[in-house]
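Teaching assistant's notes for section 4

Start the section by putting this record on the projector. Ask students to predict, before seeing the second block, whether Transporter will look compact or extended. Collect guesses on the board.
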Amino acid sequence: MFASLSPITWLGLLGTPLLIAMGQVLFKMTSSTAGDFSLRGLAALAANPVLIAALALYGFGTIVWIYVLKSVPLTLAYSFMGLTFCFVPLLAQLFFGEPLTFRYALGTVLIFAGLLAING
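Reveal the predicted structure now:
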């Protein structure tokens, strides 16, 4: 199945989780500037350019995902969303200095093993 996929489809399978992970980093950045949970705070949050960028990444990722699903069954394609659990900690380390642990590395290996088991 996967051997016959186009490079664009592969880019979508791998790129969508990366876009989602990047959106999570931007959500975390937004959280540091979020005010209180009031009408004024929500209005300021809605106008936050970092939040708008995060939502745009999520929206673009969703559109890419829709096109991926034209050529890949959902049951197989969705397993690639597990890559977000690999990408988010890497990006959190890069942007926020959050530590990467042995348990993260082990989990990443298990996620890749799961991808191979599901899609192999």
